[in-house]
């Protein structure tokens, strides 16, 4: 065996850039989530924007009680994303839990680990997206049970929307929700959208609805806002990315108005 070569230390330290990527988006997702990470990689990540993910414990079924149990893990989850480094935005990617826990409580929990960061939740982003589209009367589609859907209806009503119709699919397991094909969602929205609604909100970060937005908008002839599409849009705009992405729906062509 030949002797190993001498290992030399390069005499000059390479110059460092301020950041590997110009902008940073944190993403807190459920341990069971199949959809949020691929969606953010598809819609948000780029050579300019990095997406950094932490998973937190979650156990099905998707009930208000189980969703609320995630709240204590939010601070620890946020702290695991690039510790001691700032983020431009951080998204907690669970629509139903955000409604049950509350936007203010989620913001406080994440701020405890990442002070000053812009916190985004799917229902908050959904409200902003619907308002950007000028919609006041909406239909809502969720994959949840009636029990888990009720807080969602109350949330959007409390934010000033008239709910023309609300349809749920009765699922209790978010892993099964992720197995609903995008093409199936296109067919479902035809029946779930009231004729008087100005827009449709499709709830749940587990659904692969971002892939179906263009088809859903064509099917019902009006704007569609989905959980992951709305949070991606919100995070992109917070990172200063104003580029239109029509392939992900009308919302992705609009500026953010907070």
Plain-language structure description:
- By secondary structure, this protein is an alpha/beta fold.
- It folds into two domains: 23-121, 3-Layer(aba) Sandwich (Rossmann fold); 124-229, Rossmann fold (3-Layer(aba) Sandwich), CATH 3.40.50.
- The protein has helices at residues 36-43, 64-68, 74-79, 95-101, 103-111, 122-132, 146-158, 174-177, 182-192, 213-220, 227-238; strands spanning 23-30, 49-56, 89-92, 119-120, 137-142, 162-168, 199-202, 224-226.
- The longest helix is centred in the middle third of the chain and has 13 residues, at 146-158.
- The chain is globular, with a radius of gyration of 20 Å.
- It starts with 22 loop residues before the first strand and ends in a 20-residue tail after the last helix.
- 48% of the residues are buried.
- The mean pLDDT is 97.
